[in-house]
Design brief:
Layout lengths: L1 E5 L2 E3 L5 E8 L6 E8 L6 E6 L6 E3 L7 E6 L4 E6 L8 E9 L6 E3 L3 E5 L2
Parallel strand pairs: 2-11
Antiparallel strand pairs: 1-3, 3-8, 4-5, 4-9, 5-6, 7-8, 9-10, 9-11
Length: about 120
């Protein structure tokens, strides 16, 4: 099983980034996909979630209206479009897969750094 995040880096406040997470080794379409983040000294928090078929999306209040989660089941990839970034969005972002029926089946990526600074 692999979840590989890409697209992170340094961006100026107000800028945008798109994170991608490529999945392999499991049936992607059976899994809800999540983006979490963890800032220094803070707990990991759920940023966005998308259902296995992409029809239901939920967001943390802090990112509503700025971030968009999407998925392409034909490419086994989930995305996080992040707009209007602020320093508060600086964190390591993690991709996570959770089976839609079996709660014990959860996979994590290694994480990718996003830094918002001028």
């Amino acid at each position: 099983v692999q979840l590989v995040e890409s697209g992170g880096g340094l961006v100026q406040p107000g800028g945008s980034l798109r994170l991608s997470c490529a999945a392999a080794g499991f049936t992607f379409s059976f899994y809800k996909m999540n983006w979490y983040r963890q800032a220094p000294g803070k707990e990991r928090e759920l940023v966005a979630r998308i259902s296995s078929v992409g029809d239901i999306r939920t967001y943390a209040d802090s990112v509503k209206g700025r971030f968009t989660i999407s998925r392409d089941n034909s490419k086994n990839t989930v995305y996080l479009q992040m707009n209007s970034l602020t320093s508060e969005d600086t964190a390591v972002y993690y991709c996570s897969a959770a089976h839609r029926l079996i709660s014990a089946l959860v996979y994590w990526g290694q994480g990718i750094q996003v830094t918002v600074a001028s």
